[in-house]
Amino acid sequence: MKLVYPGGGIGVHMPYEYHEIKTLEDFEEHKKVFEFDEETGTATLVGMDDVTIEWELEDINYIAGEKIKAVYPEYKQLNILRNGTAEENQTMNTFIEAVRAWANSDNPDPWDGTLDSIQP
């Protein structure tokens, strides 16, 4: 993920997997700008950075993979493929294809609720 600041400056640029910002709430917290008073040792909120996130393909693929594995860990996928019913197989495949379609859509946003709405 890239944090992009006004004027095109790039802030933190690292894979989502390793980034400290995992939720929209984390991002909102990151945008806060504080002024530190050395006399009192306190910080006062003085504004918010006008920063945006650019999701990169590796981030989206990682997030999609984690969504799939949360519902169907690899061992469960293998068990369904090997011994599952046709209905279990179809349910799993439909779910995985829906997550993949989300990941391959134009500008997928992990925080807009569309990925969370995909359920088996």
Average pLDDT for all residues:
91
* Largest beta sheet: strand ordering: 2-1-5
Which sequence of SSEs, written as H and E, runs from N to C? EEHEEEHHH
Output the number of helix runs. 4
What percentage of the residues does DSSP assign to strands (E)?
A: 15-25%
| Main sheet overview | 3 strands, antiparallel
Contiguous runs where pLDDT drops below 50 for at least 5 residues: none
Shape: elongated
Number of domains: 2
Structural class: alpha+beta
Give a summary of the structure in a few sentences.
The protein is α+β, with helices and mostly antiparallel strands and 120 residues long. Helices cover 42% and strands 19% of the residues.
Protein architecture, described:
The chain has 120 residues and is α+β, with helices and mostly antiparallel strands. α2 (57-71) packs antiparallel against α4 (86-103). It starts with a strand and ends in a 17-residue tail after the last helix. It folds into two domains: 1-54, no CATH class; 57-120, no CATH class. The protein contains four helices and five strands, in the order ββαβββααα. The strands form two sheets. Strands 2-1-5 form a three-stranded antiparallel sheet, with no helix packed on it. A two-stranded antiparallel sheet has the order 3-4. It has helices spanning 24-30, 57-71, 74-83, 86-103, and strands spanning 2-4, 10-13, 32-37, 42-48, 52-54.
